[in-house]
# Entry
Amino acid sequence: MNKKLIILIIIVLILIGIGAWYFLGKNKNNETNEIIPEEEISEQQMRQTIVSLYFFNSNTKSLVSEGRLIDAKELVKEPYNKLMQMLIQGPNNQALSKTIPEGTKINKIELKGDILYLDLSKEFIENHEGGEEKESITIYSIVNTMTNLTEVNSVKILIDGEENKAFKDNKIRFDDPFVVIKEENNANNIIEK
# Structure
């Protein structure tokens, strides 16, 4: 009887050994099947963010946003200046049109409360081709772009430091801050102060 007991104990120990070997081997395989990315994400890629700039689409006759990938560090330093410079440079998409007149320079940009004071050079009005619809498009490409920033609710435009200016035809005046229109960004519906 002792022989049967010893054989039974040996069989149990063998089964325990096989089970332990199986589970240890299985866990070891799981540890080595680590997923390794093909390309590491660089520090610069991790800092990038998307901004929306508004330009005119002549096919739809409306302002549309163009997404741009930008280094977040650039946006943190001088966000309003950077966005305005990008608007002045114009769109990357060839289907869109530049909305800021040639030669326009940024004199000063300052946030007071939730109003962004944007002081532009005289070329902003002197070099504009005119017409109320095109003037509205120019204004709201700026307003829609800047109000994407949560702290900006409206944009007050100054020309060479002076308030109460207007485009040459005097149809759109810069007396009050401009606010974004929440509905459709259609050129026919964007004049609102």
